[in-house]
Design goal:
It is a single chain. The chain has 178 residues and is α/β, with parallel strands linked by helices. It contains 5 helices and 5 strands. Helix content is 35%, strand content 18%. Helix 3 links the parallel strand 3 and strand 4. The longest helix has 18 residues. The two termini are 15 Å apart. The model has no long low-confidence stretch (mean pLDDT 96). This is NAD(P)H-dependent oxidoreductase. One of its GO terms (molecular function) is FMN binding.
């Protein structure tokens, strides 16, 4: 019998109640039989990356973030695109992981949910390949025009998007068991 996998879900937006956070909450609800999802909403609390501080004793917020990644079976990142790139806060958090191997072979699901999102999605995939995360085309999802697809209550109201998210959940579950 399958057990639930621990997922650490990172919202790439620092905006409270963002579309990205709403999507992560929907994924947590839709996948509750498969995953135990812990959503990280504290990107703004991670200090600016500074290689001089990336020592054996980095800032506590960084240690906590790294520990959550380390102990998770898988990671989901759901992020908007800002100026054809990742939000600086998400890139900053990922930079704190470069000197480690915590993402090496870690199973990840990548979602870019934004107005357009194409360039940001490409960048997210490139960064995750660089730090050796394990993902595939089925665990990588671009949701364009997200504001019209998730309502104020956080419900995904676009049937195609809902189907894509359900397929994403199945694909991530399959990846986690490989």
């Amino acid at each position: 019998m399958k057990t639930t996998k621990k997922i650490f879900a990172i919202s790439g937006s620092t905006r409270s109640n963002s579309s990205n956070l709403k999507i992560l909450k929907q994924i947590a609800e839709l996948s509750k039989d498969l995953f135990e999802v812990k959503i990280f909403e504290n990107l703004a609390e991670i200090p600016h990356f500074n290689p001089d501080l990336d020592t054996e004793n980095p800032p506590q917020q960084v240690t906590n973030f790294r520990n959550e990644i380390q102990k998770a079976d898988g990671i989901i990142i759901c992020t908007p695109e800002y100026v054809f790139s990742l939000p600086g806060s998400l890139k900053n958090a990922l930079e704190w992981c470069v000197s480690t191997t915590i993402f090496s072979k870690k199973k990840v699901g990548l979602i870019t949910a934004s107005a357009s999102g194409e360039k940001g999605h490409e960048e997210l995939q490139l960064i995750m390949k660089t730090i050796e995360a394990s993902f595939n085309a089925d665990t990588s999802l671009l949701i364009q025009g997200v504001r019209g697809k998730v309502n104020a209550e956080g419900v995904i109201v676009d049937n195609l998007t809902l189907n894509q998210i359900q397929e994403f959940i199945v694909a991530l579950d399959n990846l986690l068991w490989k």
